[in-house]
Amino acid sequence: MTTQAHAAAQDLLDFIDASPSPWHAVASCEARLQAAGFSRLEEVDRWQLVAEGRYYVVRGGSSIIAFIVGTQTAAEAGLRLIGAHTDSPGLRLKPKPAEDAQGMVRLGVEVYGGPILATFADRDLSLAGRVNVRTPDGFASKLVRFSEPLLRLPNLAIHMNREVNESGLKFNKQTELPLLLGVSDNDTTAEARFRQPIATALHVAPEDLLTWELNAYDTQKGAFWGVDQEFIANSQLDNLASCHAALSALLATNKPTATCLCAFFDHEEVGSESAAGAGGSFVSDVISRLAAHAGLDAEDQKRMLARSFFISADMAHAWHPNFPAAYEPCHRVMVNAGPVIKSNANQRYSTNADTAARFMAICEKAGVPCQQYAHRTDLSCGSTIGPIVAAQLGIPSVDVGSPLWAMHSIRESAGVLDHSYMIAALTTAYGDN
Hints:
Low-confidence stretches: none
CATH superfamily of the largest domain: Zn peptidases
CATH class of the largest domain: Alpha Beta
GO biological process, one term: proteolysis
Structural class: alpha/beta
Number of domains: 2
Mean pLDDT: 97
Helix content: 25-40%
GO molecular function: aminopeptidase activity; metallopeptidase activity; zinc ion binding
Largest sheet: 9 strands, mixed
Strand content: 25-35%
Distance between the termini: 31 Å
CATH topology of the largest domain: Aminopeptidase
Number of helices: 11
Shape: globular
């Protein structure tokens, strides 16, 4: 294991640990972009862009697009776009979550996306996200995160669930998933018990908490594991690992020929159909404004898109030796064996033969291995932002990702080398012409 690969993996773990919600993930990206000299743009303002300028724009607090204006006109060089998503499956608090449940205060949750619910049991959970608080002018949005465990989903003892090891751990989503917060107090309502720690953290009165988008997260930090410490474990590797790799690649890019963008969207895990999601207008709005500032007419904008290339970066299913029947023969991708090109004949992934070959060439140029993956034909295949963005923009696209175990678990695992490989491939892609 090289020192460089270990350092990149540690930086990834630090990035994830600082990003327990989509809003925190965007804040983490913003901090790194600002440190690298990127300027923030606001969608409500008129943009003033300069050649070789470095910019970013945020939508909804949970989606972000950063870009470097290329040295050549976009009509001649096109765009190099890498996309990923900031959200992960899990448990989100309801608008009025607090309930007094016969002596215990518990918080009602909704299931967001498709998490492996059993993995949330008996973990040191806490709350993170954004809260809107009352101000003299209306309201202001503030990030909140509790580093100490506040919540828990305790298992039922095996003495009361004798078949759990044979039938599997299952939770009724309505009655058995609410998270325990504390013992109820005859002098304090469940609502007050819930509001008070948030209000204290934000230095406001409890009654000034208006609305919130809060998720439960695992407070255990990321770690290396394996006999040679060749693996990493953390929450949200799907898909903050891809965000980190793409952002690292963009920050390593200097004076690119083509305009380079990385676009990180919220709501991928629930279909992307939102103003901040890949199915919204965010990326096309940014590209339209880039084209306008480059002075491109309608014809040149079409030429720009025809010369562009999009990489959809999301995680891939790593070969698990304990479950060989779950995999398609000849498509068993290995951890620490390089980026994975994901293909599906029904366009659940955006890859075609041409774009796969182009990414293979990028990996070869970067000096990293690559692999190919297809799902078992008799199993439903997941999807990504790839087909959505490719269809919206009409540009060639490929779906790729680093191999991952336990996708959608609260504690996922991946390879140290794979993350370094992905950064190298994406950095090369930004310079590919």
